[in-house]
Amino acid sequence: MNADGRLGMCVCAVIVAALNAAWPTPARAADCNGNGVEDAQDISGGTSQDCDVNGVPDECQPDTDGDGTIDACDDCGTQLTDNNIDEFWSIRQSSTSRGNVLWFDANDDVYYYDGSTATLIQPRNLNNVDLEGVANFVFMLGSGANPGEVLAAWRRGTDFAWIWGNDGQDPRDAVYTNPYDPNRTMNPEDVAIADGCIFMLLQASDPVTSNLTLHVFRIDPPTGSSTLLTVDFLNVTQNGGSGALVNSLVTSGCKAAWSWCSEGNAGTCTVEPDLHYYDGTSTVVLDRQALALDFARGRLLYSKPVNGVVQLFLFDTNLPSPAPVQLTSFGPADKQIIDAQTDGRNVAILVGDAGGQNREIVLLGGLPLSDAGTSPADSPPSQAFPFQLDRGQLLWTAQDTSVVYYNGSTFQRVCSYGWLNDGYVAQLRKTSATGNDTEVFLFTGTPPDDAKQPSAPLLVQATASGNGEATVSWSTVLGATAYNVYFARESGVTPSSYQTLAGSGAVTGVTENRAVIGNLAGDQVYFFVVTAVEDSTEGPPSAEVTVMPCVDPALDGDGDGTPDCVDGCPNDPDKTAPGTCGCGVPETPDCPGDLCPDDPNKTEPGVCGCGVPEATTDTDGDGTPDCVDLCPDDANKTDPGACGCGVPETPDCPDDLCPNDPNKTEPGVCGCGVPDVDDNHNGTLDCLEDMDGGTPGDSDQQGCAPGLCGPGVAPILPLLITGVCLMRRIVRRGR
Q1: pLDDT class for 131, splitting at 50, 70, 90?
Q2: Per residue in 502-540, pLDDT tens?
Q3: Can you point out the beta strands (E) in 415-525?
Q4: How far is CA 202 from CA 162, 212, 293, 600, in A?
Q5: How big is the CA angle at 463 (ends 457 and 464), to the nearest 5 degrees?
Q6: CB-count burial class (<10 Å; 0-12, 13-18, 19+) for 213
Q7: CATH no., domain 461-547
Q8: Are the C-beta atoms of residues 155 and 139 closer than 8 Å to each other?
Q9: CA 508/CA 697 separation, integer angstroms
């Protein structure tokens, strides 16, 4: 209390701080634009746009070029629509093929962009007839039979499917017949388009069971007529009265595959499906308990469980006698396959832990593109949208809500999710602050390699394997009929340039995914690249790898079985590579930073050493910590020396018992500093004669003071003193 009875200011401050800690002030909601409305409400209410989906209104984020689009959303490419010029608005769905784009707007009008011009190809209202709305789950643009041709299909309302091609014809009805009742319609549920062919899933009601079933039809693009491919499903044996389902429809080269199950509920199989394959003429059961995943360049990718673990299989329809081949060998402890895609050259796999956590995308062969921790793309993939693979390029949404585009070698963010095809991404993005205007954008990525080229081999490795010999290995490339290996003693090896380099050579027509190359110069670094060949077309080279072949593979100085030329620790029989700790040092987790590997409390010796706590106490103040000071109480000494702690160190120590008496090295009878002499030769030392009060050399022949020995008694004190001194000397010398 102050003199006036009030609490002091310091005390008040302490109390206020304590109260604030106990009851903190609620954090204010963000309002970056200062309009008095929370940012989240501005975004949800349409007052502010949030094109990068980071929870911050766009007007509060940088727009360096002043184009009205924040920097984070500038990677959208070319804007194809503009509601200020045409009336395209609120686009809900799009698809792309070879840089062409198909979309429909909020009026359910269908538009097509041919690379330069957007054209209305089907309005919702045609000749005063309402064609009903477009369904986004049956809406696709795919490749035609010839370069520059495209095919499209979409569903309107519940019953009608339309097909269209850029051949000058108007959109036309897909004509199909209900296999149960020709007088009843069917609902289109899915479509697959590629290479000039269209396949469609159509739903009908089984009159026997009243269950909805799905069937596959092949649609003829010029006429719209159709052929039922799942006629076998109509019999009671296969249908089983359970509502047979067809799903995961895929196509390539006018062939198709789908998975069929005999029992389903709400459009989902309740039993493991069987994989069916249509070769253009007939349908067979390709595999049991299998799910079709993707089909490209005649190569069908599917999955099935093997010993309880899902594995990937490849069915190459380009081969004369194709047979399923298992591509993966995941174990029960590995991350499990969630999804996979193929472009006919590459296979990308989405894997994750049980429950779909810790997801990552890897290319077949082991090259990781993303993971839950450290990855090129920084953020693991989300399952909000399916990832896409086309011509060695990928598009996926990341867990941080960003959209990642991988062009085959590098990564970049694009402004929104879209459709990937042939190096193009068709995207939809809101462009108005109110959120009621969405435009179509076309992002042009890195042009991919020619479609006919096989992919570059991955995971190339080179090892020294013999005298002047190297072994090069790589991952298998889908569709490759052979491989070529190029090498030289200089970097920059390519199929076209390797011959200009020193020590160059090539091994061609290799039919396996490894090659042994001999006749190389020992102790010379060689550079290698590998290409894949499909028929007569050679793909791009792999990444360059190096190795130094052996001169004498029999030379093994440390006897560990590894030739010195490839032994990273040629003098250490326990190691062939330095590792973390280095050659000659056992590999332990403590290396290299822990200099006290046996001391859990210290990583370096410090002053006191490993195993001894680092003390800061210096009792005698001599600048030496007690942990290393052998005389911690002696400010003049840190070591006892010859004389001991507390005793000045002199040359006299330890044999001189009279270090200050130059004439004596031991006390004798008279002690240090007093001579042991008998000047009167009476048998009594002078130092003792004056004890009776006389002077040295007086008439007392007994040499004893009266009262000490008594009359006529020989003195015994000198004898006692002498004995004590002699005993001390003996003891000291015995130490």
Answers
A1: very high
A2: 999 999 999 988 999 999 987 789 999 999 998 888 988
A3: 418-421, 424-430, 438-444, 461-466, 469-473, 482-488, 505-510, 514-517
A4: 13, 10, 19, 69
A5: 145
A6: buried
A7: 2.60.40.10
A8: yes
A9: 125
Q: Tell me how far CA of residue 487 lies from CA of 241, 470, 566, in angstroms.
A: 64, 11, 19
Q: Cβ of 709: how many Cβ atoms within 10 Å?
A: 17
**Spatial CA neighbour of 256 closest among 212, 200, 325:** 200
pLDDT tens for each residue of 636-682: 888 887 778 877 777 667 667 777 777 877 888 888 888 888 888 88
Is the separation of the CB atoms in 597 and 588 below 8 Å?
Answer: yes
Domain ranges of the chain: 461-547, 655-735
Query: Is residue 348 within 8 Å of residue 369, measured between CB atoms?
Result: yes
**DSSP H or E stretch at residue 261:** strand 255-261
**Single-letter amino acid, residue 689:** E
Predicted confidence (pLDDT) at residue 494 exceeds the cutoff of 90:
yes
pLDDT at res. 690: 57
- Does residue 592 have a pLDDT over 80? no
pLDDT above 90 for 13: no
- Helix or strand holding residue 534 (H, E): strand 526-534
Q: Give the separation between CA 447 and CA 540, rounded to whole angstroms.
A: 14
Rounded CA gap, 389 and 576, in Å?
40
Task: Specify the length of the chain in residues.
Answer: 735
- Find residue 528's DSSP bridge partners: 487, 545
